[in-house]
Design brief:
globular; five-stranded antiparallel β-sheet; 13 strands; 2 domains
């Protein structure tokens, strides 16, 4: 499925006219349905951060640059999440993703946590349930109908709770690239060692855009930072 062949522009140059989360072009803006049924969520990197809990902390107002060079302030539904990652609530279009605003969530009668649950339900409905395949070094790889949304399944709590039923001591996961999500049982030290090496290598130069250099532990129904992110370059 190629519905999400697009990238979220790094930094804040996301805003042409209607908060499109893609590079600005001279073409007319795509009309995107801004309903709850079209809401999705993506994970993106927060360079230099290491947030220790999963509470959603809003970015607040963000500065953006228009195509004509004007600087503006934007209200987006972006939230600091965990480790060196943040989430962006977006509406799904054929060629672009449009950032949801706090006003959009108010209009849809959704709190940020409720919107996240709706977005994950939409993810499963549109792109299916995540599929697990063996990878190298005793690791398991999460796959989906579109590689572009694989990292979003890190937020699929139902999936990880099902895994923890198999591994009560917890599961350690890495999302080094937006299209990559791998994990190992906490009880397998060799696989954990392989995961430490793999996340560093993939984050440094894997396919697609990078996401997180940290390792995360899912245990007792929630995520925590298992290995902190790499220090950001000066």
């Amino acid at each position: 499925m190629g519905r999400i062949r697009r990238s979220l522009a790094r930094g804040i140059a996301l805003a042409c006219s209607c908060l499109l989360v893609a590079p600005c072009t001279a073409q007319p803006a795509e009309a995107i349905e801004t309903t709850a049924g079209n809401l999705l969520v993506v994970l993106r990197e927060s360079v230099g951060e290491n947030k220790q809990d999963e509470s959603l902390q809003p970015f607040g107002k963000i500065e953006g640059t228009m195509a004509d060079g004007r600087r503006i302030e934007l209200e987006t539904s972006w939230y600091r999440y965990l480790g060196d990652m943040h989430i962006r609530l977006v509406f799904d279009g054929r060629h672009t993703l449009q950032s949801a605003s706090p006003d959009d969530l108010t209009r849809l009668h959704l709190s940020p946590d409720q919107a996240l649950k709706v977005a994950i339900a939409n993810l499963r409905r549109v792109y299916g349930e995540p599929v697990v395949r063996p990878w190298s070094g005793g690791l398991m790889q999460v796959q989906a109908a579109s590689a572009d949304v694989v990292s979003s399944y890190f937020l699929d709590r139902e999936f990880w709770e099902q895994l923890q039923a198999q591994y009560p001591e917890g599961v350690v996961a890495a999302v080094p690239r937006r299209s990559g999500l791998v994990y190992a049982p906490m009880t397998d030290p060799d696989a954990i060692a392989s995961l430490r090496f793999s996340v560093a290598a993939l984050y440094a130069g894997g396919p697609g855009a990078r996401l997180s250099s940290a390792l995360y532990l899912f245990k007792d129904g929630h995520w925590s930072v298992f290995q902190p992110p790499q220090p950001s370059a000066p």
